[in-house]
């Protein structure tokens, strides 16, 4: 038995332990698994519709008994338990222990969240087909004579592997029909038959009755022409009168009886003519019916017919007496027998002189020995199973190189019998080509007889015929080994796009062969290929039979862990490509073995993550799976697992909850007393943004239809999400808000006019303090979850708690209508318009209410009244012109996060994201004190590609790549030679600050806009990687926002207006500190101290510059460690490390001062006694640059010595020193950008 090669995390289990685990899983199942590991690759007789609630009602009742018993334990009426009591039963430090990942943002494909509304939704587009009846028509030997000759007398003619001459005429029809019947039933056991032997016209009337009974199923008409007269016009013959005579029976009459869908097999000379006859016949029938009432046309479309013909229009079947008279029929129904026979006749004809060849030989060699139990050990037994799989592999692989995916799916994936017949028809093409005969078909298949893979089929047959060993050698292992090696080498050498469909199809067959040694390698290679790209997954989807792969996944037969994980990845990748694959899973598949492993402590986290992701794809469709997971026992296991789960595993568990309950609420009996919801609420502070989004998505399922206090509790616990950096988190929080609004709209409508006006605040800390009715410090509150829970509890104890939360919701929805992310903003606008319509619908005094909204409790209270209009539909869009349309607000509120989650799991193969690593912050080199006697500028590069003057310039901190912003709100990024690399327009607001952050060898453009938001953009991308509101004042959109960054430092400091300094961690994507500086005027810049990222300096228009120690707790006045003032309007300030940590600042009146951070001394440097328009200072060299009205830009020393005066750069230009390199770049109003090397020259040359 194959061992489970489980790579557990430190568990040290042996293969015997794992086999026992598998046995226990099998014993726990109520019924045996019906999907064997070595399932026939053709076994795809699907249910066609998947499991619907109606289909599985009975199954769910049986399998849900255990769940119901578990639920009865908690069936008592649940009572309200205080939060203080619930908090004692959870792990309050789960969030604080969570790992912070390395910087990771969503991709461009994930930016527009509305695009996911129809993705990864199963809609059962897979429609299986079935052939229900076979009509077999051949002539009775009594009704025709056999031509005698000396050559033909040497052997007997046979049909259906039955000797025509030596079989009694009364037994021949029965034997022949049984032969056909048994061969057909090997492909479809439930197939019905209509046997016609030299039929009269009356016999055909039974076809009409069968069609009446089977109006939509395919009917097969199989015509063997031997013994009938030859037909060259595509018509068949029937027996007429006595003595028997054959008369023409027009094909059109057959078509009227059979209608469609239909299939025809013509095993007769000149059979290619039947295709035109059928095509013209169906066309005539359709035309005649269309002349009447088209709506009364019976049956399906008249082009839904298939046909297989033994020859072309002018060809006859081979006359070799050793060949059967029904060559095509024998090939379609006995492909291996015919392959061996034709190979013998071609290469070993003289070695089989027996007069009873081939009937006796084939019967004795291929069938009798197969039935014996190897009584004689030295006697070879023909490996029928191996040859059948090998033939299937070879033919399917050959066909995949010739047919389009749609045609391949139609012929080889819809109907098992049709697939088998067409597969063997391709073999007939190959076997008949040696006789220069070309079988034809509808749809027309190309000639595939020259494909190189036929060599492998011939080699296997030759090996069997020539081998004298009693132990059967391997006929396929070398073939599979070569396939795997070729595939892996092409992948390794970057030639994945050159992999042919035939090679891929062969690889898909290997995991189902008897040779298990190749299974793990083949599965791993297949998974690697599928995970590499979307195009690869599409090719794999056309090559696999999904039900077989999934059956292998849930099978209790042990397999190696590498193979199991590869199989999980492959299944997930196919689900991501098309969720309709769930409908190809067989209805009887037992999923219990899969979900039993979800909390198995012996499995590693990666494997359990993949299992949870697969269950997430299934749980919406399979009701019995939902019943299994909807139990008290499951939620207790979930609660115990959550605190110790890694981020990837946690995310998969939470998404599984969301998919289980995306259309309903979780019963409180399952979670309330065990405090599962409180444990999840703790994870709102998780350090991984994707986990926070998953937590919010799952928590929305815990909200109840008639429990406003519980819903208010959940909403208050999730409040911190409103200021999250990750837009996916905010989107999920908005869904909670809308769900609360939808559930309690009556409370909103009753209380919206009672909202009290509260003074406006602009720091996030003060807003949350007002919401929670207590002073809190941010982010200290997230490290003391019991205190936060206690605060939430105190809010809920107020008499107007629900009213209070309603006011929060109305404010927050309005807050999100100003969100920088378009999906969040658009959804919030819809929600606001919906609520406005709700309140206006029955309003009588709306004109008296205020029209503005101010934080923290500014309300949507400009209207009042009540209505029954469903909240899920918007009667007013952003555009008033479409106000009459009804647009769903959230068509599927799990679609976005589920699609993003699935993509991440597939990309990482279930691995957790890399953890944060301490990267040393890159600081400007301190060269001591450097004197620069003279300097000059030498042009190094220039461009005019921007076409307009830049508003800001930002250098890459380590090289000369440069970013520019423009008045048209665009950002351009140029390489070192000012060649355009990428540009983007992130929003419609003025860009007020621009920086380039180098982190982990990647450049990120940090753009601040006047509406109080920050965007992070990676050059080359189409959208922002992250965008969030960094200032709480969303009313004013014309106050500049500023940010400070440092190379390889994952924290961004921001300031705006008279708000405080906020510190954001872009790895955890959270606000991690806030310092109130509201006593100051409007901010004009923020930067880190040149020698330390622990101190940030904020400059204000008034001329004040304040330093804050970011290591001091938020809200403490002791955080202010320095301040100085120019007593005039500040133009700019910057840091310099020439001789220490120095800050140079210049006022509008021309005063330039230097602040020494170490000695805390302020010295005057330069006094221009005239207005200064712009100013900058080099961080390393003692160089200052000034621009004054109507004068050229000058470069001076800190003492005021003019080192250089530009000749062509006018005063209205903007300029920027590179932080470490001696480079100065200008942007002029005409759009010309020029970059100069600053050459330090003692002689001024």
Automatic annotation (TrEMBL):
Domain Raptor N-terminal CASPase-like, chain residue ranges per copy: 132-279
SMART domains: Raptor_N
Domain of life: Eukaryota
GO biological process, any: cellular response to amino acid stimulus
Molecular function terms from GO: protein-macromolecule adaptor activity
Gene3D superfamilies given in the database record: YVTN repeat-like/Quinoprotein amine dehydrogenase (2.130.10.10)
Protein name (database record): Raptor N-terminal CASPase-like domain-containing protein
Native species: Tritrichomonas foetus
Lineage, uppermost ranks: Eukaryota, Metamonada, Parabasalia, Tritrichomonadida, Tritrichomonadidae
